[in-house]
Specification:
Strands 6-7-8-9 form a 4-stranded antiparallel sheet. The protein has a 4-stranded parallel sheet with strand order 11-10-12-13, covered by helices on one side. It has a 4-stranded antiparallel sheet with strand order 17-16-19-20, with helices on one face. The chain contains 7 helices and 20 strands.
């Protein structure tokens, strides 16, 4: 089969979880994405909210089986030699829809072709095929090396956990509950003194409450440094749970910046500056505390943006006083205080 060679690689990726303005939740998922010619394949599929089968929260045996399946060491899970490339981030039901493709050998090469959106046992290429994507031909050695490295690492990385530090137990308890609901582990403590190094290695981020002083914060950072753990520290902007969740989601994002859809957010003078690397749906939400310290939330923008920089006017009533803007795509979150 004739097809131009493409490079094959893998990179960490994230489906960002969060607390919606209506009180609903979106589940957080860490997964390994496929890179074709150095770019995430997911970005070629419009604004698809999906994850690859190589997710970090599946059992190691299932993760290994998925890798071996992509290496064609087992039969295809779907008829016509079709494999799931991306699926629903909330469940594994094919009825929700999945991106599938034929994966086959051609000599030592691997070929991915006939991409389609599939919701039943058989794919309808005429009506649901991604006609502008593929076929991709990958050198066998490069393909096997990339996927084989996942097996050498003994399966997926452990699920993300966050350490919440502060004295305002009620707020931290609500934050921990929200994080656990979207699939992020969270523990609450006053400090990190005496915590064994092996336990500190379980955390990907530390979030400090507003009452934690500078000396206490420095002691926590030192504890992680002694344990040899590179951890991201989050300074909470305001006691608003969805805002804090967004900050923590951003802190947990380990995907390389050039491989993200959302790369910049600034907010000043009643406008927001947003930069995206591929066509995607972007949602802007404002958060603030009113005069009675009650949290206020307002959706500011929800639309598809083309690659590049964009300036979006904001509702002045939503961003008055001390307010904060959160920008979201399906895989990225950025938070910015409104500058005056």
């Amino acid at each position: 089969m004739s097809a131009a060679y493409a490079t094959f690689g893998l990179a960490p990726a994230m489906r960002a979880g969060g607390v919606r303005a209506d009180g609903g939740y979106q589940v957080h998922r860490d997964f390994v994405d496929f890179l074709v010619d150095g770019r995430p394949l997911l970005f070629q599929l419009s604004d698809l909210d999906a994850v690859s089968p190589l997710a970090s929260d599946v059992p190691p045996a299932i993760f290994t089986a998925q890798v071996r399946s992509l290496l064609l060491e087992s039969d295809a899970p779907l008829p016509d030699d079709r494999y799931v490339i991306y699926g629903c981030p909330e469940c594994e039901d094919l009825a929700c829809g999945a991106v599938t493709a034929v994966i086959e050998h051609d000599g030592d090469d691997y070929i991915w072709r006939d991409f389609a959106w599939q919701t039943a046992e058989h794919a309808d290429l005429e009506f649901n095929g991604y006609h502008g994507i593929g076929p991709f031909r990958f050198h066998g050695a490069e393909y096997r090396e990339a996927l084989g490295a996942l097996l050498a690492d003994s399966g997926p990385a452990p699920a993300r956990r966050v350490l919440l530090i502060g004295a305002r137990v009620a707020l931290l308890a609500k934050l921990a509950a929200a994080l656990r609901t979207i699939g992020i582990g969270a523990d609450i403590t006053r400090d990190a003194d005496g915590v064994p190094a092996e336990e500190l290695r379980d955390y990907g981020a530390v979030a400090f409450g507003p009452t934690v002083g500078g000396a206490e914060r420095a002691a926590v950072r030192e504890a992680f440094a002694r344990a040899g753990v590179e951890v991201t520290c989050v300074e909470g902007l305001a006691p608003i749970v969805p805002l804090l969740v967004a900050q923590i989601e951003h802190a947990l994002d380990r995907s390389p910046l050039p491989l993200r859809r959302l790369t910049r957010l600034d907010a000043a003078d009643g406008t927001a500056g947003v930069e995206v690397t591929s066509p995607c749906r972007v949602r802007l939400t404002a958060y603030r505390l009113d005069r009675l310290s009650r949290p206020r939330t307002q959706e500011l923008f929800d639309g598809v943006l083309e690659p590049g920089s964009h300036r979006i006017p904001l509702d002045g009533r939503a961003v008055k006083g001390a307010s904060y803007v959160v920008a979201r795509t399906s895989g990225s979150v950025l938070v910015q205080a409104m500058a005056r």
